[in-house]
From TrEMBL:
Name assigned to this protein: TatD family hydrolase
InterPro entries: DNase_TatD-rel_CS (IPR018228), Metal_Hydrolase (IPR032466), TatD-like (IPR001130), TatD-type_Hydrolase (IPR050891)
Keyword hit for Ligase: no
Organism: Pendulispora rubella
Keyword terms of this UniProt record: Hydrolase, Metal-binding, Nuclease
One Pfam family hit: TatD_DNase
A GO MF label: hydrolase activity
Matches recorded under CDD domains: TatD_DNAse
Gene3D superfamilies referenced in this protein's UniProt entry, alphabetically: Metal-dependent hydrolases
PANTHER family xref list: DEOXYRIBONUCLEASE TATDN1 (PTHR10060:SF15), TATD FAMILY DEOXYRIBONUCLEASE (PTHR10060)
Domain of life: Bacteria
Length: 269
């Protein structure tokens, strides 16, 4: 399996990242794309991809981008820094970028400017984009419609939206990332029906660790801290396979093939 979204530079992994990675490999996670969410975090995940890829863990890649929460800190110099980072072979996408009108940690106009600049960069470098959207589907779709012809590939990570939104995103030829949200019996049950509508060459899976621990895990297996890890990706795979009525092994093969193509991962990954 490949985890397309894991926040490996999070404080939550500072103490035991090597163990976390070893456990991931043992549960068949062969590669991880570590998410960059700010200039410094993008630098940190690139560092992790460089240093940790050759141990007994999964192969690690990274993204370089600025999350909408941090859009207010975006400047010309951060755009230049992202561009420089993106030239490293470990960096496989621009992002995480997008719009979050749910929490509005940055003003909306700052989010729109920051999003625009990163799509411009992705178009310029012909790199795929790793996207975040919360409560902003109208503006998000409008911005993407404008850029879509110039973008190679784009994935809406941690999709949690409605059927209508999903249809819009598939029409925009976006890929869809599914997390353990689908395992949440309180707020994710709508996804059980919706994942059947995603063509297999458009769907990828992710943990978004340390967040979104799959609630379908048996209580005894759930870490007391509630910390999610890449090794729990199999619970996402299981939930999606059940929802689609597919064998886990088939779904695993399909998502790995889709992910390899999306991020253009080297053949030895
Ligand atoms: Zn996100």
């Amino acid at each position: 399996m490949i985890d397309i979204g894991s926040n490996l530079a999070s404080k939550a992994f500072r103490e035991d990242l090597d163990t976390v990675l070893r456990h991931a490999r043992r549960t068949n996670v062969t590669a991880i794309v570590a998410t960059g969410t700010s200039e410094s975090v993008s630098r940190a995940v690139l560092e992790i991809a460089r240093e940790k890829s050759y141990g007994d863990g999964p192969r690690i890649f990274s993204t370089a981008g600025i999350h909408p929460h941090h859009a207010k800190d975006f400047s010309r110099s951060s755009a230049d820094a992202l561009r420089a980072m993106a030239c490293n072979p470990e960096v496989r996408a621009i992002g995480e970028c997008g719009l979050d009108f749910d929490r509005n940690f940055s003003p909306r106009d700052a989010q729109l400017r920051c999003f625009d600049a990163q799509l411009e960069l992705a178009a310029d470098l012909a790199m795929p984009v790793f996207l975040h959207e919360r409560a902003a589907e109208d503006d998000f779709s409008a911005v993407l419609s404008r850029f879509r012809p110039r973008l190679t590939r784009a994935v809406v990570h941690c999709f949690t939206g409605t059927g209508e939104t999903l249809a819009r995103y598939l029409d925009l030829d976006l890929h869809i990332g599914i997390t353990g949200w689908i395992c949440d019996e309180r707020r994710g049950t709508h996804l059980v029906e919706l994942v059947r509508r995603i063509p297999s060459d458009r769907m990828m899976i992710e943990t978004d660790a340390p967040y979104i621990l799959p609630r379908s895990m048996p209580r005894a297996e759930r870490p007391r801290t509630g910390r999610n890890e890449p090794r729990f990706l199999r619970w996402v795979l299981k939930a999606v396979a059940e929802a689609r009525g597919e064998a886990e092994a088939d779904l695993e093969r399909a998502t790995v093939a889709t992910t390899n193509a999306f991020f253009d991962l080297p053949a030895d990954a």
